[in-house]
Amino acid sequence: MSSENQEVAVAPEQSQLSGDPKTETPEVNVDWKQSIPEDIRADKSLESIKDVGSLAKSYIHAQKLVGSDKIPIPNKYANDEDWSEVYDKLGRPKTPGEYKYDIPENANVNKKSLESFSDQAHKLGLLPTQANGMVKFYNELLAQELQDSNSKATATLENANKELKQEWGQAYDSKMQKARAVALSVIDKEFLHSTHLNDGTKLGDHPTIIKAFAALADKMGEDNIVQASGPSYLTPAQLDKQIHELQQTGSAYWDKNHPNHDAAVQEVQTLIQKKNNEEVTA
Prior knowledge:
By secondary structure, the protein is an all-alpha fold. Among the domains are: 80-142, no CATH class; 156-226, no CATH class; 236-275, no CATH class. 50% of the residues lie in helices and 0% in strands. α5 packs across α7 and α8 packs antiparallel against α9 (261-275). It is rod-shaped and about 135 Å long. The N and C termini lie far apart (162 Å).
């Protein structure tokens, strides 16, 4: 057979890189939703599902939830009974008395108030951990407020004592004793120590109250109620008055030839020492 009549076999076109026959497969985008009934294709629950595999996973997950204990959420038309069923399923105690609270043994708790809280907590559907958390928070809040109040009252008392000691000088102890005696003669001791003013100070510790009773004691004079034990002292203001009287112009204090000159000078010196809370020298 001549070469003119021979059939020439044509090899498939080779890939330049791999040497394999070059084949082309066109990409086809298939919408999986086209395979389901038309009336459910547009359902919103299918919007996030991109392919059949995702649909299968979603179905498996839904099947696992079937039979689990689910709690339907009441709608706006639900009444108290509907919500009560929800609270019970969530774990609300059967009765208010079953709530338990972690309260320190030394805590001063009003039992009636705690019982009232339990009733309200049960009505509102609080879980045991929620109710206990509320009581714990409230107790800690009260404890902090009490601590702050005591600290403030202590600081105020210290400042008041400092102010009174500066004003009364050596007469401080005597005046405090007299003021206390008058106060306790007309006001119950418990009231004085338990009543707090706006700044946290106890009524019986406030300098204005103390000064008022001290002034009242002075006006009562020799009354047995206000008699203080120990030596009697004058306030700096009273000492200044006596010093001024001894140092008046023309007095023995200024006249070295006066027979009482030395006594007057000594007395003034003594009064000045008392005013400055110094030890009196003979």
